[in-house]
Design goal:
alpha/beta; Protein disulfide-isomerase; 23 strands; five-stranded mixed beta sheet; single chain; PDI_thioredoxin-like_dom; Thioredoxin_domain; Prot_disulphide_isomerase; six-stranded mixed beta sheet; protein disulfide isomerase activity
């Protein structure tokens, strides 16, 4: 059976990567199944458990041969593996081709939703953590060396503090009268759990820490951050309470989306949050930028903790987001709210003094959702019919036809490969008035998410004339599509005999299937 590949997308990956993604597809080359290619170990479904089980610490990259980001990472990953192989103890880097059909169960097991995904596996694979470090060799080496040391570094001097604390990142410091007791044990457990997300340190002398009260007399967790009030303390050392404290205090009141790579970890948190998201995009060099920033920040403070997170994006850095949301630069300054159920609310060419009243209307439930749609095509006479959001009701839901619809992205290589096959399928049904083959650009039109679950490209669904909706998950050949449509079409609609050249050949000359 052929591999049913597609580009998998998730919130932040889409927004940060759309402008960079390549539409080209590279065929996978065969690799030996238990071998070391230079310094990177190659794993697959047959040797994964055995090899991972031998290591207390191993890093595994899940990749796809066609993925442009994976190709960019490959030489950096190899350089890092070479350096880390001489570390004491050696740090092993490995890779798995997650595009191979036999390895897809592994990818599912480790929650792989996009490529490349890197996992840190500890204790023979019993503990899995996301790799959240840099993607260039020097940064990979530095990050992983910290990951194999103690989860929290003891700070015995101002120099120790200076080497640990990065003013552009969040750092968590445990301040203790003595390095023992329940609070210290809970702090150490938390550091081990969250070590891939944050840098941790601990000390018995608060004067070494550059921010905050130095006369601490009881156990205190201090969160240092490069935004808002710069530090905040908590003295509740229950693990759940510490996690909540970090989650709430470690997010900026307004997340900046600009060219500064140090902001990327905060962007990841913003887009991964289940809360609704308010996003204001404008040119940061505009004369009115300070007015926009102040008004927007005031509103963000007002609604903090009320289920709405805020982002301020520069036009130049946000082009991928603009493409994803179907916005154009002539709409800027533009404010957009996206809810957890993917509804959108939008106001283009907004003025600074309109931000607060518009968001109040949103919070009061007085705004109508914005639905993104391309214009309905005036001419639609190609074999595969173009469907947009404004026409999907008529063509798919109300037409009384059996419709196979593809949700695609113009940059998606798998979609480009599928296009001529769907054309052939559509031509095969051109004399059948009860069948429509359609395509829907999911990057410029909002997908009706209450009906179709589109998590990657291409995604295909079939809706029968009587209204039954099923996903298409079969092989992507002309004959497989035709067989699926004939099997699932509404029995009330009279089927038309459709025979492809390949089917005819089979009937005339039976042969073994490989």
């Amino acid at each position: 059976m052929a591999a049913r590949s597609r580009v998998v997308i998730s919130g932040f990956v889409v927004l940060m990567s759309l402008a960079l993604l390549s539409g080209s597809i590279c065929s996978a080359e065969e690799e030996s199944k238990e071998s070391v290619v230079d310094h990177v170990l190659t794993l697959d479904h047959s040797n994964f458990s055995e090899i991972v089980g031998k290591h207390e610490f191993i890093v595994v990259e899940f990749y796809a041969p066609w993925c442009g980001h994976c190709k960019s990472l490959a030489p950096e990953y190899e350089k890092a593996a070479s350096v880390l192989s001489s570390h004491d103890p050696a740090i092993v880097l490995a890779k798995v081709d997650a595009n191979e059909e036999a390895n897809k169960e592994l990818a599912t097991q480790f929650g792989v939703q996009g490529f490349p995904t890197l996992k840190i596996l500890r204790n023979g694979g019993k503990l899995s953590q996301e790799y959240k470090g840099p993607r260039e060799a020097e940064g990979i080496v530095s990050y992983l060396k910290k990951q194999v040391g103690p989860a929290s570094a003891e700070i015995k001097s101002a120099e120790d503090a200076s080497s640990l604390i990065d003013e552009k990142k969040i750092t968590l410091i445990g301040l203790f009268p003595v390095l023992s007791g329940e609070e210290f044990e809970n702090f150490t457990a938390l550091a081990e759990k969250l070590r891939s997300d944050y840098d941790f340190g601990h000390t018995v002398d608060a004067k070494f820490i550059p921010k905050g009260d130095s006369s601490i007399s009881k156990p205190t967790l201090r969160l240092l951050k490069p935004f808002d009030e710069l530090f905040v303390d908590s003295q509740d050392f229950h693990v759940d309470a510490m996690e909540k404290f970090i989650a709430e205090s470690g997010v900026p009141t307004v997340t900046l989306f600009n060219q500064d790579p140090s902001n990327h970890p905060f962007l990841v948190k913003f887009f991964d949050s289940p809360d609704a998201k308010a996003m204001l995009f404008l040119n940061f060099s505009t004369d009115k930028f300070d007015d926009f920033k102040k008004n927007y920040n005031d509103v963000a403070v007002l609604y903090k903790g009320k289920g709405l997170n805020f982002l301020l994006g520069d036009l130049e850095a946000s082009k991928g987001a603009f493409q994803y949301f179907g916005l154009s630069e002539d709409q800027a300054p533009v404010i957009l709210v996206q809810t957890s159920d993917s509804q959108k609310y939008l106001k283009g060419n907004v003025e600074a003094d309109q931000i607060a009243p518009w968001l109040k209307e949103y919070m009061d439930g007085k705004l109508k959702p914005y639905v993104k749609s391309d214009p309905i095509p005036e001419v639609n006479n190609e074999p595969v019919k173009v469907v947009v959001r404004d026409s999907i009701q008529d063509v798919v839901f109300n037409s009384g036809k059996n419709v196979l619809i593809e949700f695609y992205a113009p940059w998606c290589g798998h979609c480009k490969k599928l296009a001529p096959i769907l054309d052939e399928v559509a031509v095969s049904f051109e004399n059948d008035a009860d069948v429509i083959i359609a395509k829907f650009d999911a990057t410029t039109n909002d997908v009706p998410s209450e009906v179709f679950d589109v998590q990657g490209f291409p995604t295909l669904y079939f809706r029968s004339a009587s209204g039954t909706v099923v996903p298409y998950e079969g092989d992507r050949t002309k004959d497989d599509f035709i067989e699926f449509i004939q099997k699932n079409r509404d029995t009330n609609a009279k089927p038309v005999s459709v025979k492809s050249e390949e089917s005819a050949a089979k009937s005339e000359s039976p042969r073994d299937e490989l």
